[in-house]
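Pipeline run #58 for the internal structure catalog. This entry was flagged by the ingest filter as a single-chain record with no existing model, so it goes straight to prediction. Upstream metadata was stripped on purpose; only the residue string is passed forward. Reviewer on rotation: M.T. Logging verbosity set to normal.
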Amino acid sequence: MSPYKIFLFFLLFLLSTALIPASAQNEDISKYPETIREGIVNVKNNFSSRSIDKLYTEFTRHKGIDDPIIAYSLVEIALNHEDKLNGNIIDSITRFAPGESSKIRAVLSGSFLYKLFHYYSFFNSHILLQSASIIASIFVFILFVYLLIKNIHIFFHSHKNIPILFNGIKFVLFFGLLTSMLIIFPLNKMLVFAIFTLILLIPEAGAGRYFCIIVIILCVSVLPFKSSIKTNEELQIYNDVALKPLSTEYMQKIWEKSGEAPLLKTMLFLKAPETFSYNAAQLTPQNKTEAVNFASSALYNGNTERFNKIVSDFSLSDNPVIIMNMNAFFMQNFMYEQYENYIEKLYKYPEYYNVFQNNQLKLGRTSFFPYHKDTVILQPSYSFNWYASTIYAFLLLMAIILHFAFSRRRIVKCKSCGKTFCRICDEGHLNESTCSLCRNINSRYSTADPSVLVKKKIQAEKYKSFRGTLSFFLTLLLPGCGLIYNGHLVLGVILTLIFSKIIFILLFKFNVFLWPFNLGIQYAVMPGIIVLFIIFTAVYLLSFLFIRRNYGS
């Protein structure tokens, strides 16, 4: 098998090991009532303000307050009917998830600049760290491949007194070590490729080489940091009961599994008193969440003395759910004067006011609502692996030492004729990247042997034509590769970095961020992607100008 076929095989192998799988967690839709699911289908088939209002009526009928899942389902439908979008429809959609209103408005806005300048709101430090890690992995792998294409000649350079078998040994040793380290570090392929990229940088010279080393070190520096998020399933159930419209079947399953959980049973009772019966009269609240629910249960059962005591003990007079349930009590007992005097307190909480108005007035029913403050359902955290970082730093340091130790022994390809040579072949002239014969001909052009001059000139013209054609196709097919191949390392690395971001978008489509970090980001990325593609196109076209300047048309 020829060395180039072996080289191609290893490229395919490396490509297969470099890809990173991604998955997104889906929401269980069985928790929603059938009327809610039918309402979403109706909005999809008959997109209008009326169908959304009808769905919102069902939403409030089942005591929904804030549900991003339903809201972003409507966002996705709305984006398929952009010709019908208007301010009233956007306002109607935000009612389903007041906590996501700013993001929803950014997604559905008709202004490109508004979308672009609100793009940042979809990102946080966890997402930036996760995206930086993946993009850095893609970038380091692509840079490794580009430098391998450019400097493949280092495996085939030899002297007359050295057997050609030595070339095969260099090739096998390099890829054997690479494969071994990929097996040893299966979860840190970026580190492995970074180390071997530093080795492939040995033939380079000038500022571009140092720029590459700094970028590689920055890429590896994100490895020891890990961002994780833990979902508290127990608290998630409390959050669902307090905020989401739930089916009776789903709530019955929760009731059966709840055991002796008084808070959860009290919340389920307030959510659906026609289905569940629970007496919280003797329970002593330990915190404000319990206090709001136990007090509301007492109020529902007409025990105003206990209600007033709990509200006073825990200072709950400004709690929005307490205000809602007091107004429900006033309406239930035809205390309209007290209702009119107290309803203004709910104006400070528009999301609760909208739900209350729709439920009590539009639906003509008296409802008492449960309460839960969702502060610790999602627990994001960072960790730093000191043990792993020490190993990474040691391996990277060894690679940098090897890089500089072998810099004086690097193998260079003549830019005139394509011949490879090293310091042994041509002492002291490596920085010129021109072999001794071409240099002598250029310096003593008038006295050179005409036959040697013609032969060398033909060879140089052929090599220039080959190099120009190869540079064009490398630039065309592998953005950034043509620039790196021609020694423009800084611009080549910048274009490769942008290209890595493009690949990241095409491969993952932001699925890695859909849940639980950033619901809705999949609908908001288009302005950023457009700007990124504009920058990429500009730098990409600029790279062709560099190639043309070197080789002509």
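catalog note: The chain is about 65% helix and 5% strand.
catalog note: The two ends are 37 Å apart (CA to CA).
status: ready for reviewer M.T.
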